[in-house]
Predict the 3D structure of the following.
Amino acid sequence: MIILKPLSITLIGVIGLFLVSCQDQVGTSSETRELTTLDTRPVLLAPTSAQRFDVPGSATSVEAPEEKSSFTYTAPQNWIPQKGTMFRVVNFKLQEGGEIYVSQVGGDVLGNINRWYKQFGGTPVTQEEIEMGARLTILGVNGYYMEASGAYNPGMGKSVAEDKMVLGAVAQVDGQLVTIKLVAEPNIALANKSAFMTFCESLAKN
């Protein structure tokens, strides 16, 4: 049989002294300090689609805020107005397929026209050649008109589109280049050529 003996009086006394000693060491501090980032829980932001799917080089596209256009114009009913973007101050979709838009950019007339020809694999033209081409009045100044067709390479990482046509107009207005562009299949572009000319010449600033 195992007999449990009571603790001796001496051992009880030792334990009591130990507890009293511990209590004497407990105190409060009146020291103050500013919170640092180590004291706060980090805020976790919701990841973007690119971050969730780890798409390399992805960027969030930015659109210009929706607001009333600074231009007035005459356009047919089959031109469906679209929200403007950072680079399109006036923007349409063609009901039959295609797009029309107005941009205000830097650069010069000849360089811009040759960029459009290059998108269709065309060779550069000279200033004399565009002077002999069709002319339009755009925002009260003499503008230039061009056409090109074939395989269309819009650039900016977009794929080449076969059998397209561009109707383009450009003018230097108050030190800025105003460009007007219609891109569609050739039969659709030509069917809208008269409306495009009217649109270009009707364009006015509010």
In short: Residues 22 and 28 are 14 Å apart (CA to CA). The domain at 85-205 is CATH 3.40.1000.10 (Protein Transport Mog1p; Chain A). The first helix runs from residue 9 to 25.
